[in-house]
Input
Amino acid sequence: MKLTIWNKIVLALGVSSIAIPAFADENSPSTNQSSPTLTSQQFVSDAAVGGMKEIFLSEAALATSTNDDIIRFAKRMVKDHSAANKKLAKIAADEGLVFPPTNTFSADDPNWSNPLIVNPESVKGAQLLTMPSLPHLTDYLAVKHLQSLTGGQFDQVYLSDMAGDHVQAVSAFETASQSLSDPDLKKFAARTLPTLQKHSKMAQELNDKYNAHDGTTTTSQ
Output
């Protein structure tokens, strides 16, 4: 596949219409196939990047939104996901697992130096790597799209992303807490799950409160 195909796909779909799960797997098997075993490394990678994404988007919300409810929620997201990732990083280090770079999604993300990236200087600010093998491509697209918004549109997309992401995160951590063979990671997933469930409830309530059913955003406080 040529690298430029991704640009055509993004333009054809429209970034704002892409679903952005926190633990997306573009190669997920169909429902009539047995799911592959969740490995310790895959859980560490997906959970860490998912947490980093919530931190990055929430820091953007703190810098952009003027809605008091959203600001309080974003502060909670930064605090809780930072704490969770710190614990996960320690477990990964103790067990020799690879923890994703903590500057994922930032301008100095080490992925920018990958030789497969076309014209990296032109996409750094947008947080989009135009390469078919990019892990968590939908997460990069979500960051890119949110960074282009302001005002009510920003609030709408941020809350929608948070609500959708946490539904996926709760599902992923439920699976991990039951199926992981690594006892420390399994315990981490089980202990983190209640916090994610609270996040999911908070995000959905805010999304219902401020995002109207017709796709518009109600007035920010």
Remarks:
- Residues 151-179 form the longest helix (29 residues).
